Amino acid sequence: MAHEMIGTQIVTERLVALLESGTEKVLLIDSRPFVEYNTSHILEAININCSKLMKRRLQQDKVLITELIQHSAKHKVDIDCSQKVVVYDQSSQDVASLSSDCFLTVLLGKLEKSFNSVHLLAGANAAEWDWLCVKCQQHLSKA
């Protein structure tokens, strides 16, 4: 059972529309294991995956979420607290069903302290996932 509400959900169609509009900066965070990220991910997404050590360091405030984002990114990321952040793991259906001790809950909580707008991408089935990756890649390749 999740503790107080963290983040809000966003569906795949809304994320694609948000990216296609280009009116807002969006920071995409892939919280799946590195192997899954390497197999298929949304272009420009930053992989921040769970390890017991990293989860503990985040919980104890021994690492700032902004430092973790910069460290995990393949390039320097311009971090702006007003930008939207969308986190996905390809299996979580909604924020309310997350355990208060799971890595995703910890990650969303830390992101919410640094960013004004944090969203969890509602779990997508395999076909929706493939569609989302293609749509996001098409949009980002035009930019």
Automatic annotation (TrEMBL):
SMART domains assigned: RHOD
CDD domains noted in UniProt: DSP_MapKP
GO MF entries: MAP kinase tyrosine/serine/threonine phosphatase activity
Stretches assigned to coiled coil: none
Residues annotated as domain Rhodanese: 22-134
Name under which the protein is recorded: Dual specificity phosphatase 16
Organism: Callithrix jacchus (White-tufted-ear marmoset)
